[in-house]
Design goal:
Blueprint (H helix, E strand, L loop, with lengths): L2 H26 L2 H22 L5 H20 L3 H11 L11 H11 L6 H12 L4 H7 L4 H17 L12 H20 L11 H17 L4 H14 L25 H16 L6 H14 L8 H14 L3 H15 L1 H9 L2 H4 L3 H13 L3 H14 L3 H12 L11
Helix pairs in contact: 1-2, 1-3, 1-5, 2-3, 3-4, 5-6, 6-8, 6-9, 7-8, 9-10, 9-11, 10-11, 11-12, 11-13, 12-13, 13-14, 14-15, 15-16, 16-18, 18-19, 19-20
Pfam families: DUF6596, Sigma70_r2, Sigma70_r4_2
Protein name: Putative ECF subfamily RNA polymerase sigma-24 subunit
Family: Belongs to the sigma-70 factor family. ECF subfamily.
Length: about 425
Amino acid sequence: MSDDIATAITRAHRGEWARVVAALARRFGDLDIAEEATAEAFATAVERWPADGVPPNPGAWLTTTAQRKAIDRIRRESKRDDKQKEARMLHDDDPPGPSGAIDDERLRLIFTCCHPALAPETRIALTLRLVGGLTVPEIARAFLVQETAMGQRITRAKAKIKAARIPYRVPSAEDLPARVSGVLAVLFLVFNEGYLATGPDTPPVRHELTSEAIRLTRVLRELLPGDGEVAGLLALMLLTEARRTARVSAGGELVSLDEQDRGAWDKALIAEGHRLVRERLATGVAPGRYQILAAINAVHTDASDARATDWSQIVALYDLLVRLDPSPVVRLNRSVAVAELDGPEVALADVDRLGDKLDGYHAFHATRADLLRRLGRSGQSRAAYDRAIELAGNTAETAYLSRRRDQLGQRDTSIHR
């Protein structure tokens, strides 16, 4: 197979997989049939395109081929006359139009995969499989589970959608905001798992997951261009992804934001993220959670170095975010900014008030360790680093925390216990 053909097939898979699955799901009402027939259509493309050439409209070719594969399967699996008639009628339907005509079907597919009746981990797996086109082994590796277990999870999810008659549609106007929020949460979880993987035996940064999350969020923004939170999440991902190559050292250690080489940041991603943030601010509409988080990251990436960061603006943005999401994690992140603005002692008082809610969260102890270190309380800082290392699952983060702990002076024996 020539490089040009291989590139065309790869491009078609990334751009057309979800469109084809969505078109078949609408026509046949069965996600199993839609997924398997789409996979067979791509397998046929691998066989045929090297000899026949890439068709003028790859999406339409793949959709037509997949529909024929689906009809063949229905005929093989059913001996009832009504099913045979149904298959013939489907086969006689008009051929699909240009691939862009089924964007609305893709949106329906996304909402089906992220339906609230499904467990959160199942929504992630289904979205990556049916919308993203990732294979079951790829998804299993991404989330550190056995391939058979992941396959069973996806199979059960599709069976539940069919048995519970979960509708294959875009939610009604009154339900749409809540349902979009659920979709965004799934995409953000995928991105976060890639940006700082939680498993101890995986690379600390998983570019395949961050890039897939960004791609799917771009798709969602194309389909919902007026949704501010979709734009906000895309901006947040872009501004975070822009720092990816500077986030882990050559030795495999996490590099904190203030120590990163800002010259290594991706300027194109930063420019795009900043543009999205400015566009949302220009609307005058009150921002949502993802838009505020994107704005915080825009302030960070706008600074030429850590000392030039506008911490007062960041604290103000966190104050706005706390009103929308007063969760302990948001308040913890706010305290990091407060430490830069008002000093570590003020921030530590805020952090300590969160101890009963975040004792099992490694970032809580890492934050306390850093604040205690800055206050010269080495013994307490060391104990906090020990607890953070115990709870951290990412190898790069563990290496960073261990180095910071080992840089402390001798244990402070004056600490009251």
